[in-house]
C-alpha cells in the first residue's frame, strides 16, 4: 500500500467498509467501491492515506507513521470531534497536518515497523491513547480503548475487487507452494530411514519410478523423486551425491522429469498472474492454460489407471507422454518469454510464437491461447469502435483515455484536446493490429463525437471472433471506420453547418462586410474613445447587437457573437501567442499603457458548442481575434486619416490649400500605407485562403482533414498578414503610430483653423490669410512637420526593406504587398 493511493478501508468485525453519510459522518456500513455502479456513490467509500509530514510523498505506507485520512471525492479530511464522533471537514492540508484532531498513528496489531500490505491488520491510533473503532450502531468513533476486532482494519485497493479471506488464510491451496512447506517435510518419512532405490530389483525400481513420476506430474513429491531446494527441478534421490538407480531407468526418467518441472513452473505462473491486478487478458490467458492443464491431468489419470492395471512400463510411459512433453514445453517456453507482459504486449508475444513455430500441433496450442486471451481485448475493442467508450482499468487496451473535460476546450489555446483526450498506448498494440491502429483510434474518436447512434454492425467482432482471430482478418475495422467517418462528416456539414459558421466569422472577424464597421463605429465611437473604466458595457453590447442585425439579419449564427473589452492589448496578445507557439522572441514583454481607451481593447468572440468547437477551437478563434483587433484598429486609423483629408480638401474652397501641400502629401502617403495593407490582408490573404479552404473542405474525406484545413486557414491568415512576425510588426507598428500621432496633430490644427472661420470669411479674408500664413510659416510648425516627414520616411524605408528580405527568403506571399506599397520602386 502506498500514500495517495485510492483505498477502501474494511473493518474486521463487520466486514464492511468505511463510508460517509449525508452529514459527513463516518460509518462502517459501506461496500467495496469496485461494486458501485456510479461515480457519485463511489466517492464516499474511497479514501487516501496522506503522509502528515509531506503531502506529496507517494512511497509505501510504513507502520508507526503519522498519517491523515483524506477523501478525494469530497476533498475533505477526517477529523475527530469532541463528542467522540468522526466527521469529514474541508480544510487545507497545512491546517490538517498541524492539527491534533486529524492526525492518526497507523500501526499493526503486532508492534513492527514495516511496509503495510493488503493482508495486514492495522489500527488507527488517535492522541496516543484511543483507537478508531466501529460501534455497534456502525457509526465510527475514536473511543476505542484497546485493540480489538472493532478497531482492526484492512487497507484494500479501491479499483480491484477484494479477494475473499480464505485466499490469504490458505497459502498452500496451490500444490506448487505445498512442496516448499516445512510442515510437509516433517510429515514425510525421513530420508535416511528409506532404503536406496538401487537396493531393489530392476522391476521394483521401475514401479517405484512410475509411481513417483505420476505424483511429480501433479506437482507432488514422491518417495525417490523430489525437488531441489528452492527450485522446480526434480531429481532421483537428490539427497545423495549419486543416485543408486539403474542407469538405463535413470536416463529414461530424466527425459520425463523436465515436463514435471515445467508443469510446476506453469502452475506457479498461473497462481501469480491470475490475480486481478494483472488485468483481464492475463486472467484469460491463465484460464486458457488451465483448460489445457485439464487435458494434461486427464492424461495423468489415464496413465494412473494403466499403472493400477499393471499394464504400463517405463518405456510405454515415455511413449504416452511424448505429445504432452512437447505441449508443456511449448507453453513453458512461451511463459518464460512473457516476463511481466500484460495486455496487448502479451498478445503480440503469442503472435510471434505462432509465426515462428513450424509444428502444426504447437501452432494449434498457441492459436488456442491467443483466441482465448483475445476475448477480453475484443470486448474492449468492440466497446470502443461501436460505442466510443473505454473500460480499461488495467491499461491493457491500445487506446488510452485522458480524463480531460469538454469544458477545457474553452482554454485549449494549444489545440491539442483532440490529440490528447484519446491517444495510442504504443506498448499495448498487438502485432496483428499494428496496421489498423490509426483506423481503430479514429473510429472510436468519431463515435465518441457522434454520440449514441445505432451502429449497423451489431457486435460483428464478438460474434465472429473465432474466424477473425484464426485468420487475423480485421477488414471489418475498415468498414466501421468508413461508416463512422461518413457519419461525422455529415454531422459537421449538415447539422453543425460549418460553412455558415465560417461565413459568419469571415463577415465579422475578418471584415468581409465593410458595412458592419461603418454602422458600428458611427454608433459606438463616442463610447469606444472613452477610458475603459468609463465605458458602459451594456450600452456597447446593445450598439454592437444593433450593428450586427442591421447588416446580417439572416445570419444563422449572429446570436452567437459577443463583444467585450479585453484585459490585454493587441501587442500583449501577439506577444503571448508567439510565446505559446514557441516563436523566437527577441524582445521583452510590451510595456502597459495605464490610460487605455475602449477602441484599443475592444474584441469579438463567438460561442461554439460541442462538437463544432473541435473544429472552431480556442486556438483558431484566438487567431481570428488577433486579426479582428488588428483590422479594427487599422480601419479606425484610416477613418481618422480620411476625416483629416476631408478637412484639408475643404481648404481648397478658401484658396488656402497651397499652404498645406506638404501636410497633404504626407497624409496621402499615410493613407496609401494603411489602405493598401488592409487591401492586401482582405483580398490577397483572407479571400485567397478562404477560397482555397472552401475547395479543400469540399474535397475533405475525414474529420482530421476538415479540422486541419480550418486550422491551417486561420494560421495562414495570421502568418501571411505578418501580424505575428516580430520584425515586420514592430516596424509597421512604428509607421501606424506615426500615422496616429500625425492624425491627432491634424485634428488639433484643424480645431485652431476652425476658429478663423467663425467670422465672416469673405469680409476678413485678408486678415485670416495673414494669420494662417503666420501659423504655417512659424518655426515650430515647420519643425514639427519636417520631423513627421523624416520619421515616417525612415520607418517606411525600413518596412520596404524588411519586405524585400522576406521575398529573398522565398516568402512569395508578400510580393503583392511589396508592389502595393512601393509600386514605383521609390524605396528600393
UniProtKB/TrEMBL annotation:
One of its GO terms (cellular component) is spindle pole. Residues 500-824 form the Gamma tubulin complex component C-terminal domain. It holds the Pfam family GCP_C_terminal. Its main location: cytoplasm. Keywords: Cytoplasm, Cytoskeleton, Microtubule. Residues 210-495 form the Gamma tubulin complex component protein N-terminal domain. GO terms for molecular function: gamma-tubulin binding; microtubule minus-end binding. This is Spindle pole body component. One of its GO terms (biological process) is meiotic cell cycle. It is found in: Cytoplasm, Cytoskeleton, Microtubule organizing center. Belongs to the TUBGCP family.
Amino acid at each position: 500500500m502506498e500514500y495517495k493511493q485510492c483505498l477502501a478501508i474494511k473493518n474486521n468485525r463487520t466486514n464492511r467498509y468505511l463510508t460517509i453519510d449525508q452529514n459527513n459522518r463516518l460509518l462502517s456500513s459501506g461496500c467495496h467501491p469496485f461494486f458501485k455502479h456510479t461515480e457519485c456513490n463511489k466517492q464516499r467509500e474511497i479514501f487516501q492515506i496522506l503522509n502528515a509530514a509531506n503531502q506529496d510523498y507517494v512511497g509505501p505506507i510504513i507502520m508507526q507513521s503519522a498519517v491523515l485520512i483524506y477523501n478525494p471525492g469530497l476533498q475533505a479530511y477526517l477529523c475527530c470531534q469532541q463528542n467522540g464522533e468522526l466527521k469529514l471537514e474541508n480544510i487545507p492540508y497545512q491546517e490538517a497536518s498541524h492539527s491534533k484532531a486529524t492526525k492518526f498513528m497507523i500501526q499493526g496489531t503486532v508492534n513492527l515497523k514495516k511496509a503495510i500490505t493488503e493482508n495486514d491488520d492495522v489500527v488507527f491510533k488517535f492522541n496516543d491513547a484511543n483507537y478508531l473503532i466501529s460501534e455497534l450502531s456502525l457509526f465510527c468513533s475514536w473511543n476505542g480503548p484497546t485493540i480489538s476486532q472493532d478497531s482492526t482494519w484492512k487497507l484494500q485497493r479501491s479499483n480491484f475487487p477484494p479477494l475473499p479471506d480464505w485466499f490469504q488464510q490458505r497459502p498452500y491451496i496451490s500444490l506448487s507452494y505445498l512442496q516448499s512447506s516445512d510442515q510437509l517435510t516433517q510429515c514425510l518419512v525421513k530420508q535416511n530411514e528409506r532404503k536406496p532405490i538401487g537396493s531393489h530389483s530392476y522391476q521394483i525400481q521401475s514401479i517405484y519410478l512410475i509411481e513417483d513420476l505420476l505424483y511429480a506430474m501433479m506437482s507432488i513429491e514422491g518417495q525417490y523423486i523430489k525437488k531441489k531446494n528452492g527450485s522446480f527441478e526434480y531429481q532421483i534421490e537428490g539427497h545423495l551425491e549419486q543416485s543408486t538407480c539403474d542407469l538405463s531407468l535413470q536416463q529414461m526418467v530424466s527425459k520425463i522429469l523436465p515436463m514435471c518441472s515445467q508443469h510446476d513452473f506453469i502452475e506457479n505462473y498461473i497462481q501469480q498472474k491470475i490475480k486481478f491486478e494483472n488485468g483481464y487478458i492475463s486472467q484469460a490467458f491463465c484460464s486458457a492454460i488451465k483448460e489445457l492443464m485439464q487435458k494434461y491431468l486427464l492424461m495423468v489419470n489415464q496413465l494412473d489407471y494403466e499403472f493400477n492395471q499393471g499394464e504400463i512400463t517405463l518405456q510405454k510411459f515415455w511413449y504416452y507422454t511424448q505429445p504432452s512433453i512437447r505441449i508443456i514445453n511449448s507453453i513453458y517456453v512461451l511463459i518464460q518469454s512473457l516476463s511481466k507482459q500484460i495486455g496487448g504486449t502479451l498478445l503480440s508475444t503469442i503472435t510471434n510464437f505462432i509465426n515462428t513455430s513450424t509444428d502444426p500441433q504447437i501452432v494449434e496450442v498457441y492459436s488456442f491461447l491467443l483466441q482465448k486471451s483475445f476475448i477480453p481485448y475484443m470486448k474492449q475493442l468492440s466497446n470502443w469502435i461501436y460505442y466510443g467508450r473505454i473500460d480499461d482499468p488495467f491499461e491493457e487496451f491500445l487506446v488510452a483515455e485522458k480524463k480531460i473535460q469538454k469544458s477545457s476546450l474553452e482554454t485549449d489555446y494549444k489545440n491539442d484536446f483532440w490529440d490528447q483526450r484519446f491517444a495510442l498506448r504504443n506498448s499495448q498494440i498487438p502485432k496483428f493490429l499494428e496496421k489498423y491502429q490509426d483506423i481503430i483510434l479514429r473510429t472510436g474518436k468519431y463515435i465518441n463525437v457522434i454520440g449514441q447512434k445505432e451502429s449497423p454492425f451489431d457486435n460483428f467482432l464478438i460474434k465472429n471472433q473465432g474466424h477473425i482471430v484464426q485468420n487475423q482478418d480485421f477488414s471489418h475495422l475498415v468498414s466501421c471506420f468508413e461508416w463512422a467517418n461518413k457519419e461525422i462528416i455529415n454531422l459537421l456539414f449538415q447539422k453543425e453547418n460549418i460553412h455558415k459558421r465560417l461565413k459568419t466569422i469571415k463577415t465579422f472577424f475578418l471584415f468581409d462586410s465593410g458595412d458592419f464597421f461603418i454602422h458600428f463605429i458611427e454608433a459606438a465611437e463616442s463610447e469606444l474613445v472613452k477610458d475603459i473604466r468609463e465605458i458602459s458595457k451594456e450600452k456597447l453590447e446593445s450598439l454592437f447587437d444593433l450593428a450586427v442585425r442591421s447588416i446580417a439579419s439572416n445570419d444563422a449564427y449572429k446570436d452567437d457573437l459577443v463583444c467585450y473589452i479585453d484585459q490585454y492589448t493587441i501587442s500583449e496578445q501577439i506577444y503571448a501567442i508567439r510565446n505559446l507557439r514557441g516563436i523566437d522572441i527577441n524582445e521583452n514583454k510590451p510595456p502597459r499603457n495605464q490610460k487605455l481607451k475602449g477602441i484599443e481593447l475592444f474584441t469579438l468572440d463567438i460561442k461554439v458548442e460541442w462538437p463544432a468547437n473541435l473544429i472552431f477551437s480556442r486556438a483558431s478563434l484566438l487567431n481570428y481575434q488577433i486579426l479582428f483587433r488588428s483590422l479594427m484598429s487599422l480601419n479606425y486609423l484610416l477613418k481618422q486619416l480620411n476625416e483629416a483629408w476631408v478637412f484639408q480638401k475643404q481648404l481648397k474652397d478658401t484658396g488656402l490649400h497651397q499652404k498645406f501641400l506638404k501636410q497633404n502629401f504626407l497624409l496621402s502617403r499615410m493613407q496609401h500605407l494603411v489602405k493598401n495593407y488592409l487591401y492586401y490582408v482582405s483580398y490577397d490573404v483572407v479571400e485567397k485562403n478562404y477560397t482555397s479552404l472552401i475547395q479543400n473542405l469540399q474535397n475533405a474525406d475525414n474529420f482530421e482533414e476538415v479540422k486541419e484545413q480550418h486550422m491551417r486557414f486561420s494560421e495562414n491568415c495570421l502568418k501571411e498578414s505578418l501580424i505575428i512576425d516580430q520584425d515586420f510588426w514592430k516596424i509597421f507598428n512604428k509607421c501606424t503610430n506615426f500615422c496616429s500621432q500625425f492624425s491627432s496633430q491634424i485634428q488639433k490644427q484643424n480645431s485652431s483653423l476652425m476658429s478663423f472661420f467663425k467670422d465672416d470669411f469673405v469680409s476678413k479674408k485678408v486678415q485670416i490669410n495673414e494669420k494662417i500664413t503666420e501659423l504655417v510659416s512659424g518655426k515650430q510648425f515647420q519643425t514639427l512637420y519636417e520631423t513627421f516627414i523624416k520619421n515616417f520616411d525612415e520607418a517606411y524605408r525600413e518596412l520596404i526593406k524588411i519586405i524585400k528580405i522576406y521575398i529573398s527568403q522565398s516568402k512569395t506571399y508578400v510580393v503583392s504587398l511589396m508592389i502595393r506599397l512601393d509600386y514605383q520602386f521609390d524605396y528600393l
